[in-house]
Amino acid sequence: MKTSADPVRDYLRAVEREACALPADRRQELLADLAEHIEVTRAERPDAAIGDILAELGDPRAIAATALAEGGNGAAGAPARGGAGAPARRGKVHPLVPLLMLTLPFLVAAALPEVPAAQFCSTLFRVIGAVLLCTSVHWTSVQKTTGVLLAAVLPTVAISIWVSSGAAPGDDTLAHLANLATLVLLAGTAAWLWRVRRA
Asked: What is the secondary structure of 123-146 as a DSSP string?
């Protein structure tokens, strides 16, 4: 077995060879994900040997087999549709949808605080947005957890405590400042999630 000056490139080429049955765009997505994972792992663990990192990823054949199984193309004859199996692995919901559902309903609830239906719909849409975020393929588990905590859990808990404890003063200025701070948090979280999303 010959040694290479660039084991990462050799590893990715091996995965590419083994995954040749995948549609080209899915194969490139797989290679990009692997390359990103290797890069992040090397940054997090600079003392780790590259061979150890690649060994942790697994055998290129196993990675390709898993990708093929996840694509659902197995024996279904999907190539007859011109690679119709490729979108099956992609998210069915655009990544902007959960971000908007977590952010915009808060504006409606803040604008109509005395309308119970607006509050209920706002809560419902934000729950749906959190579920869509958690089930999306566009973010890692850590990013999803952080996004849900910052965009759904933290504002909801803060508002609940504010209202139920009677801490909400009669002065509208403090309420407006609290709403503004919450909106900044939601917008900042949505912007961060949009920036770190996977294409």
From this structure: HHHHHHHHHHHHH-SSS-HHHHHH
Distance (Å, whole) CA 146 – CA 39: 22
Q: Residue 91 has what DSSP assignment? A: -
Cβ neighbours of residue 98 closer than 8 Å, sequence gap 6 or more? 129, 130, 132, 133, 136
Task: Give strand ranges (E) for 13-111.
Answer: none
Q: Single out the residue of 53, 70, 54, 80 nearest to residue 19, CA to CA.
A: 70
Provide the token pair at 28. 């490139």
The two structure tokens encoding residue 196: 């770190």
Spatial CA neighbour of 109 closest among 118, 97, 117, 100: 118
Average pLDDT rounded to a whole number, residues 85-92: 46
Q: Could you tell me the residue ranges of all domains in the chain?
A: 7-89, 96-196
pTM of the model: 0.51
Q: Which residues contact 189 (CB under 8 A, 6 or more apart)?
A: 102, 146, 147, 150, 151
pLDDT tens track for 118-143 = 878 888 888 888 888 888 888 888 98
Please, are residues 152 and 105 in contact by the beta-carbon 8 Å criterion? no
Tell me the mean pLDDT in the region 66-75.
63
Q: Convert 71-88 into a string of H (helix), E (strand) and C (coil).
A: HCCCCCCHHHHCCCCHHH
